[in-house]
Amino acid sequence: MRVLIVGAGIAGPTLTYWLQRFGHEATIVEHAPQLRAGGYVVDFWGAGYDVAERMGILPRLQDEGYHVREAREVSRSGRRITHFDPQRVVGLSGGRYITIGRSDLARAIYDAADGTVETVFGDTVTALHDDGGRVQVEFEHGTPREFDLVVGADGLHSRVRRLVFGPEAEFERDLGITVAAFDVAQYRPRDDLVAVMHTEVGHQVLRLALHDDATMFCIMFRHDGQLPQDDPAAQQDLLRRSLAGVGWEVPAILEQLPQARTFYMDRASQILMPSWSRGRVGLIGDAAAAPSLLAGQGSALAMIEAYVLAHELHEAHGDHRTAFSAYQQRLAAPVRGKQDAAIGMGAAFAPRNRMQLLLRDAVFGLMTVPPIAKIAIGRSLVDPIHLPPVPVS
After folding, report:
1. pLDDT tens figures, 206-217
2. Alpha-carbon distance 251 to 234, whole Å?
3. 342-355: per-residue pLDDT in tens?
4. Domain limits at 17?
5. Nearest-angstrom CA–CA distance, 269 and 190
6. For FRET with 280, which of 105, 176, 347, 376 sits at 20 to 30 Å CA-CA?
7. Where does 68-190 have alpha helices with state H?
8. Domains: count for the chain
9. Is the pTM value of this prediction over 0.90?
10. What count of Cα atoms within 13 Å lies in the side-chain half-sphere of residue 64?
């Protein structure tokens, strides 16, 4: 089959890899002019880790990733309040756990795909016409083309979803928290392999040293209004206003915004859809079922969904109706479980009030006690998703 995949993030290139392995012809179209850089780091484990292993990219991920040795909470003055060793918690996953930049993970997956894959950067779809036998695709810049299937892997604000299923507002669950991430060079102080956090009511700021003397900042804050779209300057102004008066290194961090090499801001939202496909068009990753950053496993889920969809297409001998149905039936319940679990995590990242902040800090302080760590985090490291075996081609 000839399959158009919209989006070159995590899900799209993973699906490309497996479709090529099973003999299909995949084309990727990506709105950005090149693979995206920057963004936040992701904690990567569970069945997504298994997909990466089956793709042969684990050695690269281990080399480019981070094994954080301390998670540290600090006061407004920078005094260490509490800390714990994440590696003890990681041990609950059998050591199959990596912290890595999301863009680094995406590039490793993209590079794993056969070099013959056609990738069109700087373009996107504008119309999809499914006649039952093929999908006629119109592009913003390119000439119209015809494909057997179209898969939207274009993220939370999926254009494919909007064109085929309807407005984003019909499927989005806004969790009331906005996330910003950016990185700069040569920031000081620098604490290698230490995730340093400062949390106040309504805010959390995290600092993590990256390779090559770079530092990433990930900021979460409660914001009920509309976010400026496609306007980094307005988004940065919103960030400054929202964090005015926050202590620790926050004033110095905000001063780094003009020097940011990359900048990302979006609301933490989930996508809940009754069906992940319609006709010859399907969705994967955040386009189908975004769990939100609070769930901590969006990238892994994107890889899982891509692998399972490719598997089901192979098993169904290209019968897209059977494959789309089996794909959703296999994953809908565990994905919804992860979405539901994320709803209660907002208090851990941006407490609503003083009571939530005190409770969060108390739980964080108990993470040095293995039974408490197992209850608080360990269960989430046991993935309920079981991957089907790689089919014999």
Report:
1. 999 999 999 999
2. 18
3. 887 888 889 999 99
4. 2-67+94-171+270-347
5. 31
6. 105
7. 86-90, 102-112, 159-164
8. 1
9. yes
10. 18
